[in-house]
C-alpha cells in the first residue's frame, strides 16, 4: 500500500478553509482587514485544538485507557483555548478594528467559540483515529507481503531438494556403471546449481535464462534414460527484456520425465512450446502418456499455490488428456524491463 502524504493533504485542507473564511469574512463585513484577521484567528485556534487533541491528549491518555484524566484534561484544555480565543478576538476585532459587539465578552460570543472549538477538538480525535487506521492497514499489508514472500520462497525451495535428490541418484548410478557420461552429467549439474544459487533467489529473471535452465534440465534427464525422450522445442525468440519468476516452468518439464516416460520403449515424445505476445507468455508441454501411467501430477498443487501468490490478478492453467497425450498449458502476464 502506498503511503499517503498526510502532511500535504492537511496543508491543502487548512489552506482551503482559511481562504474560504477570508472571503466569507470580507463579503460579510466588506472589510479586508477584518476578514483576514478573523480568518487568521479562527484557523489558528482550530489548528491548536485539532493537533493538541490528535497528537497529545488522545494518544497519550485515551489510548492508554486513562479515560478519566483524559476527559478532565480535555475539558480543561478546551476551556483554556475558548477563553484565550475570546480574549484575542475581543482585543483584535472588537477594540482595535471596532467590529461588531458580538466579539465583546458576551454569552453569544462564548457559545459560538465553545461550539466551534469543541467541533475542532472532535475533529482532532477523528484525525488521530484516521492516522491509526491507515497505519494499521499499512502494517497489515506489510505483514501480508512478508508472508507472501516467505510462502513463495518455501514453495520455490521445495523444487530444489527433490530435483537434486533425483540427479544425485542418477550420477551415482552412472558412476557405479563407470559410464563415460558421468563427467558431462556433473558439468551439467554444475550449471544448474549455479542457476539455483544466482538466479533462483531473485523475484524475476530474464526469460532466456529460465529457458536455458529448462534445456539443461532436459539434457540432464535424457542422459539417464535408456531410450531418450524425443523432445522438440518450439520457442519464439525471447525478448531479453522479458522477465519471469524463476523456476516457474520447471514443474511442467519435470512432469514429463516423472509420468510421461515409459522406460521400456523408445516411443516417448514431448513438445515444449513457448510463445510471447506484448502482454502475455504462453507455455505448453505436450507429452505421451501410457495406459499404466498414473497420470497424476503431484507437483500441481504446489504450482497452483505459487501461481496464486505470483499472479493474484489472474492466470490460466489447464491440464487435459487428448489422443494419448497429456497437455499442460500456462499463460500469464509478463514483466518487461526498459533498457537505459
From TrEMBL:
Coiled coil: none
The organism's place on the tree of life at top rank: Bacteria
Residues annotated as transmembrane: 7-26, 32-52, 67-87, 107-131
Occurrences of domain Signal transduction histidine kinase internal region (ranges): 151-225
Keyword vocabulary terms for this entry: Membrane, Transmembrane, Transmembrane helix
GO cellular component: membrane
Protein's UniProt name: Signal transduction histidine kinase internal region domain-containing protein
PANTHER family: SENSOR HISTIDINE KINASE YPDA
Entries under Pfam families matching the protein: His_kinase
GO MF annotation terms: phosphorelay sensor kinase activity
Amino acid at each position: 500500500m502506498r503511503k499517503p502524504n498526510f502532511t500535504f493533504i492537511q496543508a491543502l485542507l487548512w489552506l482551503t478553509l482559511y481562504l474560504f473564511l477570508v472571503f466569507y469574512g470580507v463579503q460579510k463585513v466588506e472589510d479586508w482587514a477584518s476578514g483576514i484577521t478573523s480568518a487568521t484567528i479562527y484557523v489558528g485556534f482550530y489548528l491548536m485544538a485539532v493537533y493538541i487533541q490528535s497528537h497529545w491528549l488522545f494518544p497519550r491518555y485515551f489510548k492508554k485507557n486513562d479515560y478519566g484524566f483524559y476527559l478532565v484534561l480535555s475539558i480543561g484544555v478546551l476551556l483554556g483555548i475558548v477563553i484565550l480565543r475570546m480574549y484575542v478576538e475581543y482585543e483584535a476585532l472588537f477594540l482595535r478594528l471596532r467590529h461588531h459587539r458580538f466579539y465583546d465578552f458576551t454569552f453569544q460570543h462564548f457559545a459560538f467559540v465553545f461550539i466551534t472549538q469543541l467541533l475542532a477538538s472532535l475533529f482532532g480525535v477523528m484525525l488521530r483515529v484516521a492516522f491509526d487506521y491507515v497505519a494499521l492497514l499499512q502494517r497489515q499489508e506489510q505483514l501480508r507481503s512478508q508472508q507472501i514472500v516467505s510462502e513463495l520462497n518455501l514453495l520455490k525451495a521445495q523444487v530444489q531438494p527433490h530435483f537434486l535428490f533425483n540427479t544425485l541418484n542418477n550420477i551415482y548410478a552412472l558412476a557405479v556403471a563407470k559410464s563415460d557420461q558421468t563427467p558431462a552429467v556433473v558439468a551439467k549439474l554444475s550449471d544448474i546449481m549455479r542457476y539455483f544459487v544466482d538466479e533462483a533467489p531473485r523475484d524475476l529473471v530474464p526469460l532466456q535464462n529460465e529457458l536455458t535452465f529448462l534445456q539443461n534440465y532436459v539434457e540432464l534427464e535424457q542422459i539417464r534414460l535408456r531410450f531418450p525422450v524425443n523432445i522438440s522445442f518450439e520457442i519464439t525468440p525471447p525478448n531479453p527484456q522479458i522477465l519471469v519468476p524463476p523456476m516457474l516452468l520447471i514443474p511442467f518439464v519435470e512432469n514429463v520425465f516423472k509420468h510421461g516416460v515409459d522406460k521400456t520403449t523408445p516411443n516417448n515424445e514431448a513438445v515444449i512450446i513457448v510463445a510471447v505476445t506484448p502482454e502475455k507468455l504462453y507455455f505448453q508441454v505436450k507429452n505421451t502418456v501410457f495406459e499404466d501411467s498414473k497420470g497424476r501430477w503431484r507437483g500441481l498443487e504446489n504450482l497452483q499455490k505459487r501461481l496464486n501468490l505470483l499472479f493474484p490478478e489472474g492466470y490460466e492453467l489447464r491440464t487435459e488428456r487428448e489422443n494419448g497425450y497429456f497437455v499442460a498449458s500456462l499463460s500469464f502476464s509478463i514483466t518487461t524491463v526498459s533498457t537505459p
